[in-house]
Every structure is written in C-alpha cells, then in structure tokens.
Amino acid sequence: MSVERQGSTPDRDQTDQGYRFAALREALREGETLSVKLDGQDLLLCQYRERVYAFENRCPHQGRAMDGALIRRGQLVCPHHGARFDLETGAPSGPLARCALKAFEVRLIASDVLVDSQPKGVTDSVP
Ligand code: FES
To answer: What domains can be seen in the chain, in order of their start residue?
Structure first.
C-alpha cells in the first residue's frame, strides 16, 4: 500500500522536535509495510508485534524501493532479491546487502504515526 500526502493539515505536518505526521495508525497492518512520502522523502513504515518502524524506502543492495517488503521473524525482507534487515536497527543480515537501512525514530501519538525528520544517529547540532 502506498500513501502520498497531497494536502496538508498544519497541526499534523510538524510537531516539536522535528517529528512529522506520516500516517494514521489504522492505515498500518500487522506484519505489513506501508510506503509514504514525507517532504519528498520516500519512507517505509512497518508494523510488527504492535510496534511501528520507519526506514528510508531504498534498499542498499540495488537502490530499489522496497514496496511490498515482507516482515519475517523481526526482519524486513526486500521483495527484489531477499536481502534482510533487522527491524530494530536496520542492520543487514546475509550476503546481499552490506549497508544498513536508514532508520528513523517513530512516535505513536493517539491515532497518528509521527516520524523523526532525521535518521537515527544523525543530529542537527554541531559539536
Ligand atoms: S534490491 Fe533489495 S535485495 Fe536487491
């Protein structure tokens, strides 16, 4: 399933600390993925065991979108050649992908899924 936000509701576009509205929770299904576009960025939302994860929707193996990826035993499985990535970290397992998926923090507030604008491990501040 794919969702691209066309219009915008100001109170859902931005929240404190850089989190952006990505989808309504009801749009997600257990064990499935949902592709969304936020500020021109393609993301893949995944729901597994009632937790929601967000990754850049671009497989490090060949750079293809991972729409339709499967979730198996806590891993996201690319639909193209089967590369596997840990849902908690985005780390690859197996020989196909050597780089991790870019992972984003997710917050669930009421019925909304909010995604950080920066990937995990990246901050705006300069030391
Ligand atoms: S493009 Fe994802 S495994 Fe090849």
So the answer is: 2-7+30-119 (2.102.10.10)
Residue 114 Cβ contacting ligand 1 at under 6 Å = no
With the most atoms of ligand 1 within 8 angstroms of its CB, the residue from 55, 56, 72, 80 to mutate is 80
Nearest 10 degrees: Cα torsion 57, 66, 72, 113: 40
Encoded tokens for 127: 């030391």
The residue whose CA has the least distance to atom 1 of ligand 1 is 62
pLDDT tens digits, one per residue of 31-75: 999 999 999 999 999 999 989 999 999 999 999 999 999 999 999
Q: How confident is the model at residue 94 (pLDDT cuts 50, 70, 90)?
A: confident
